[in-house]
Amino acid sequence: MKKIKIGLLGLGTVGTGVYKLIRMRSDVMERTIGAQLEIKKILVHNKNKKREGVDESLLTDNWKDILEDEEIQIVIEVIGGIEPAKTMILEALKAGKNVVSANKDLIAEEGRELLDTAQEYGKDFLFEAAVAGGIPIIRPLKQCLAGNEITDVLGIVNGTTNYILTKMFEEGMEFEDALRQAQKLGYAEADPTADVEGLDAGRKVAIMASIAFHSRVVFSDVYTEGITKITAADIAYAKEFDSVIKLLGVARNTESGIEVGVYPVMLPKDHPLASVRESFNAVFIHGDAVDDAMFYGRGAGEMPTASAVVGDVIDVARDLAYDCTGRISCTCYRQIPVKDFGEIENKFFLRMQVKNRPGVLAQIAQVFGGHKVSIARVVQKNVHLEKAELVIVTERVKERHMKDATEELKNMDSIYEISSVIREY
Amino acid sequence: MKKIKIGLLGLGTVGTGVYKLIRMRSDVMERTIGAQLEIKKILVHNKNKKREGVDESLLTDNWKDILEDEEIQIVIEVIGGIEPAKTMILEALKAGKNVVSANKDLIAEEGRELLDTAQEYGKDFLFEAAVAGGIPIIRPLKQCLAGNEITDVLGIVNGTTNYILTKMFEEGMEFEDALRQAQKLGYAEADPTADVEGLDAGRKVAIMASIAFHSRVVFSDVYTEGITKITAADIAYAKEFDSVIKLLGVARNTESGIEVGVYPVMLPKDHPLASVRESFNAVFIHGDAVDDAMFYGRGAGEMPTASAVVGDVIDVARDLAYDCTGRISCTCYRQIPVKDFGEIENKFFLRMQVKNRPGVLAQIAQVFGGHKVSIARVVQKNVHLEKAELVIVTERVKERHMKDATEELKNMDSIYEISSVIREY
Questions:
Q1: Any idea which residues are catalytic in this one (chains A, B) (predicted)?
Q2: Fewest beta carbons within 10 Å, which of A312, B145, B224, B383?
Q3: What is the CATH number of the domain that holds A79?
């Protein structure tokens, strides 16, 4: 019986899931792809650590054991981070091995070099698991929707923040309490910065934008803003406006360039992304032929991520059987500039605490007018003797104009505080 | 410059969309797949019919013109129906051409023969457009999720009925009024039978079940029940129960065999399928590794369907470039029996008009008990002097037991009418 031998780099959460899933499916694979999948070696940092349910004879702490093993045709990289993952992937490709990776950090930074190397050596480099975990998104974009000009990619691609925002919305919790609950349940890490500040989502949106628009977008192109400033009061307003607040990765291909950012958005309740709850992820796209489409599922976790990795491994195995590795490589054949974020237009929701006296609204309106910001709606609430809460929703205005206007407002005597600035869909 | 020549069979709505989209994308294809796509000939019934925007020199009414043209490497079949589509596809494959089809009727009946022939001749036979129009679902199931044992496939795969049910739910319309509106807007045909009776959805669910469970399911295996009996009163109860009513294609792979059917279902509002509105489609799946996932988008229409067809064509073009056509063929390597529908267990919502007098409920409960139907909930409403409305929700019971119980209830003196029997999720 034919066997396809695999080297697994890393045995953390995802690596363990991949190990389990490949063993579970080893037999049926023979019938789907005509070969058994066999993990021959596993690269770990510490060979002596006790690992439940893992065949210890497969473990090695020497990368060369895998790189120089000519039987190994597929390398699965689930170490994460830039180095040593990058060097290992490049060496594996150059040694004639195909590579499957779940490494969003690396691909969002160095995807081009990895894909170019794979193409040069005629090998597969697949990374479905790097974006939105188990949800099929890379292959749909590269293959199923290849006949489209994709103009919009909107994604809830971070489960931690979606869990927190769901708790805030459904149970009226404040951010800090929801975060603590997420940490208790293992949805958030002890240091939650990468999640709650939108960095994790930013890496994923860079990868999706590159593939959707056929033009390289890297993480440093992505404006990121997290959810730490969102309060229960903002959520209450969102409800009043028949909306929800979601942390969205937003990428648009416009006539003046690519717009790309991650930030909280007030989204109408009937938008398909609005009903994505708990730690689920979803990616919404718009293409000129397909119209709107959305892909929903588990964006992280041991087995969902393993599902995406093993799907890629099976695809490589089919390419090996048909001698066509390298069949789908880099599809970034364009060079579209990424727009300066200040030039992007958005609608804004502003909530501020102001002095309760005549003429304040006129002053504020004048500041906005001076910065070319048109006001669509004003609501005054929570009026007290000295203080009132003012909510202003703008028309679509340039980010830089909005920023200048809020800077000026902050310095006004009649404004105690600008409590929140949230973009509207 | 390399050109890949295509023969297009049929120039109806989908055919015209495919023609337009391939021409729109002809140039960029050179950069993604290294070849231009060119429609060389189009098979039509009537060559002399006036067709806006179509190069008339491509039209032919003679199938042999395409079959015997050795330059044509890809045949796109968008005629629909069993014959002559089946014969043409088989002849094309045997003549060494690859085939892309959007023909759900044919694939739901004869998929095995077509796929086996493609495999025998080492050619691609792809049909992403045959299920859920523009939504990527076949390729995600066959590739991205190939590492999973899929246990559940639930689909809203008919836009006409979803539009009608949305109008009934959101605007309180009766079925007939919503149908008329759908017909006026072109969402429903003059003879809406195939849509409203669940036949169209039944074909799609047969195809999806086959792929998801790796075992052939044909249309005649699928129990179908439409939405013509759903009333505004049922919808009002659904709202009261925090649910919606959707026409679902349901396929499950259980230890005792495959369960497959199409019928209206009361679905809790927080299920991802519940928020699929208007004529949109969505397919929800559960796999042992990926957990829950859902694919949402346009299930029909000229350009969304063309999007799926052209995605397949581009995939064939890549296989041609790498000399690996036939790379993914039939994946039905199992033979799992399809269960008799009577043996399937479901929960039921029953609404009935009964005589308003003591002892009636006891009589009804006795009938249910005699047929092994456990009652979970009883609500009495709209009580008049002579008549009352009784709503009963059952526990999970066998379809045949439920059928026997309702037959007996129908003949009871104290029951005027069984107004509706709807399955609950």
A1: 204 (proton donor)
A2: B383
A3: 3.40.50.720
- Residues of chain A contacting residue B321, judged by C-beta atoms under 8 Å apart: 327
A406 and A293 within one domain? no
CB atoms B307 and A313 under 8 Å = no
The verdict on A156 and A23 lying in the same domain is no
What is the C-alpha to C-alpha distance for residues B156 and B249, in angstroms, rounded to an integer? Answer: 6
Confidence of residue B98 (pLDDT cuts 50, 70, 90): very high
Specify the number of domains making up chain A.
Answer: 3
Distance CA B379, CA B370 (A): 21
| Chain B residues touching residue A315 (CB < 8 angstroms) | 143, 146
Domain that holds residue A64: 3-130+302-321
Q: Which of B25, B144, B335 to probe the A interface (max A CBs under 10 A)?
A: B144
Q: Is B45 a residue whose pLDDT tops 90?
A: yes
Do A293 and A347 share a domain, yes or no? no
Residue B327 falls inside a structural domain: no
Which of B140, B290, B296 has its CB closest to that of A272?
B296
Q: Give the residue on A whose Cα is nearest the Cα of B214.
A: A32
Share of chain A above pLDDT 90, in %: 92
Are residue A243 and residue A195 in the same domain, yes or no?
yes
**Of B110, B280, B94, B364, the residue nearest A275 (C-alpha):** B280
Catalytic residue (one of B204, B246, B347, B398): B204
CA atoms within 13 Å, Cβ hemisphere of B198: 26
Mean pLDDT of B168-174: 96
The nearest CA of chain B is from the CA of A377 a distance in Å of: 27
Q: Does residue B129 sit in the same domain as residue B240?
A: no
In this prediction, the answer to ipTM > 0.85 reads yes
Q: Does the beta-carbon distance from A287 to B307 stay under 8 Å?
A: yes
